[in-house]
Specification:
With about 240 residues, this protein is an alpha+beta fold. The chain contains 5 helices and 9 strands; from the N terminus they run βββααβββαααβββ. Helix 1 packs parallel to helix 5.
């Protein structure tokens, strides 16, 4: 980790047709495979942290959570739905600024992100067994097998599973045929305020047409003649 981390200084991310962000270029291509490399945007980070908040009573380790991600802020907007991010040394939970979060998945099986996936899966199992009257307590492997079965066809078709979906599927998992009574997690009504500090400097090479990303119901651009701010309002899973 200590040898790899300093080489990771920036990355360029693109907005996919699925309204998720995917890494296109990275400052350390030797250690990172860009194929299917996904990154959480600030709104997704907030929602995932809200979901994880329900696990605090079951032993959530915030150090495992923070180590699982490299944190980035927006440096500038490029063309063709591309944004350049620069790495920051911030705590994901305590940071006051909106951050992108890249899973530390260099070692997919034993790395910090894999540790987080294992950690929250086990805690989700504790929550479910504590909240639902099962005939027999469920085990972490049951969640893993169930979700992998759902993903199998997509894997065969060559589709990558975004880290946002991977995490939210675990954190919202309920076995088929059961319900879990809990208070719904709502997105902040003042969500636009979160992004007022996300100033995006348009590159000198971008022309007027390239400066505007195509908008849909999940995105909104705010700005004036001097600066622009990006708002990526990712729909929460239902």
């Amino acid at each position: 980790m200590s040898m790899i981390a300093p080489k990771l200084n920036w990355c360029i991310v693109r907005l996919g047709n699925d309204c998720n962000w995917w890494v296109k270029e990275i400052s350390d291509p030797i250690h990172w495979d860009l194929e299917g490399l996904s990154i959480l945007d600030p709104k997704q980070v907030i929602y995932i942290l809200d979901l994880m908040d329900t696990l605090k009573d079951y032993g959530l380790d915030t150090d495992i959570l923070d180590r699982a991600f490299f944190k980035f802020r927006i440096d500038k907007r490029l063309r063709e739905n591309l944004v350049r991010l620069t790495r920051v040394e911030e705590n994901l939970i305590d940071s006051d600024e909106p951050l992108f979060a890249l899973p530390n998945s260099i070692d997919e099986e034993k790395g910090p992100y894999a540790d987080l996936i294992d950690h929250v899966t086990r805690l989700r199992v504790r929550l479910l067994n504590d909240s639902i009257d099962f005939k027999q307590n469920i085990q972490p492997d049951e969640i893993v097998d169930d979700l992998n079965e759902q993903y199998q066809q997509e894997f065969f078709e060559g589709s990558a599973i975004h880290c946002y979906r991977e995490l939210s599927d675990i954190l919202e998992y309920i076995p088929a045929g059961f319900e879990l009574d809990r208070e719904e997690i709502h997105e902040n009504n003042d969500k636009d305020d979160i992004y007022k500090e996300l100033e995006v400097n348009v590159g000198e090479e971008a022309n007027d047409k390239e400066e505007i990303l195509e908008q849909d119901e999940t995105m909104h651009w705010e700005g004036d003649d001097e600066n622009n701010a990006i708002v990526s309002n990712t729909k929460r899973k239902t």
